[in-house]
UniProtKB/TrEMBL annotation:
Record-given protein name: Double-GTPase 2 domain-containing protein
Regions crossing the membrane: none
The organism's place on the tree of life at top rank: Bacteria
Chain ranges of the Double-GTPase domain: 21-210
Signal peptide from the UniProt entry: none
Pfam families listed in its UniProt record: DO-GTPase2
Cross-referenced InterPro entries: DO-GTPase2, P-loop_NTPase
C-alpha cells in the first residue's frame, strides 16, 4: 500500500547539485558542451525510457547556446573557465504516458584553481553537492609526472572529505572521467594510463567511495564553413550519475 500511495502522490522531481572539478585544461566546459550535445539533440530519436537533457531555464539555455555558438563560429574549444558557472538542466525520458521529468540537475562548472590543496570553496561546494565529476586530462596524466601529483592531491582531498560528508548522502557518486582519450593513439600509451591509474583506483576503493571511471573524446569535426563537436563517451557518466542518485533517493523513500 505504501508504494501505491507513493505512486499516486506524484512527488515533484528531485534537484541534484552536481560539481564538475578538474585542473585547468582538463576539458570541464568542453565535456559539459559535449554531454549536452549528445544528450539533448538526440531527444527526438529517444527510445522508450531513454533519457535526454533540456535546459531548465532561459538563462541556462542562453549560456549553453553562447558556448556552442562560440565553438561553431571560432572553430575552437572554449577558453578556460574563469569563474564558477551554473547550469540548470532537466533530465527527461519518454514513457508510455508521454514525456516525464525524472529529475533536475544544478551543474557547477568551476575553475581549475579550486582544485588547489585545502581550498575552502571547493570543500564548501562538495559539502553542498550530491555528486561530483572529476575530469583528468588523460595525455597529461601519462606524460607529465607533476600533473599526476596534482591529481593525487585532489583525489586525496576527495578521499578525506567525502566520507565525512556522506552521513546524510550515502553512496555519494564520483565519476572519474579521463578526457582527450582519443589523443592516446597507441595501445602502449593506454596501457601506461591504466597502470598509472591503478594506485589511485585502489585508494578510492580503500575509502569505500562510490567511484566509477569513464573515458571521453570530443574532437572538433569540420562541417562546411564551421565545426561541430563529435562527442564520444560523454553520455555514460551522466546516465551513471542519474542512476546512482535515483537509486539513493528511492532507498531513502522506502
Amino acid at each position: 500500500m505504501q508504494r501505491v500511495a507513493q505512486f499516486f502522490s506524484r512527488q515533484p522531481p528531485k534537484t541534484y547539485n552536481i560539481l564538475s572539478i578538474g585542473f585547468r585544461g582538463a576539458g570541464k566546459t568542453v565535456f559539459l558542451a559535449g554531454s549536452y550535445t549528445s544528450l539533448h539533440f538526440n531527444r527526438k530519436k529517444a527510445r522508450l525510457h531513454q533519457e535526454w537533457l533540456d535546459c531548465q531555464d532561459a538563462e541556462s539555455h542562453e549560456k549553453m547556446n553562447q558556448l556552442l555558438d562560440f565553438i561553431t563560429q571560432s572553430r575552437q574549444y572554449p577558453p578556460p573557465t574563469l569563474k564558477a558557472t551554473e547550469f540548470n538542466f532537466s533530465v527527461k525520458t519518454r514513457t508510455l504516458c508521454g514525456v516525464k521529468t525524472r529529475c533536475h540537475l544544478h551543474w557547477w562548472d568551476i575553475p581549475g584553481e579550486f582544485c588547489q590543496p585545502n581550498n575552502a570553496d571547493l570543500q564548501l561546494l562538495l559539502f553542498s553537492s550530491h555528486a561530483c565529476c572529476l575530469l583528468i586530462d588523460a595525455p597529461a596524466f601519462v606524460n607529465d609526472r607533476p600533473y599526476q601529483q596534482k591529481v593525487k592531491s585532489v583525489l586525496q582531498q576527495l578521499a578525506n572529505f567525502l566520507p565525512q560528508s556522506q552521513a546524510n548522502r550515502p553512496n555519494y557518486p564520483l565519476a572519474v572521467i579521463l578526457t582527450k582519450f582519443d589523443l592516446l593513439q597507441t595501445e602502449l600509451s593506454r596501457g601506461q594510463l591504466k597502470q598509472q591509474l591503478q594506485p589511485f583506483v585502489q585508494d578510492l576503493r580503500s575509502h569505500q567511495i562510490n567511484a566509477h571511471g569513464f573515458t571521453s573524446a570530443i574532437p572538433l569535426i569540420s562541417f562546411g564553413a564551421s565545426v561541430t563537436l563529435h562527442p564520444q563517451g560523454t553520455g555514460a557518466p551522466f546516465r551513471w550519475l542519474i542512476t546512482e542518485l535515483n537509486k539513493t533517493e528511492q532507498a531513502v523513500r522506502r
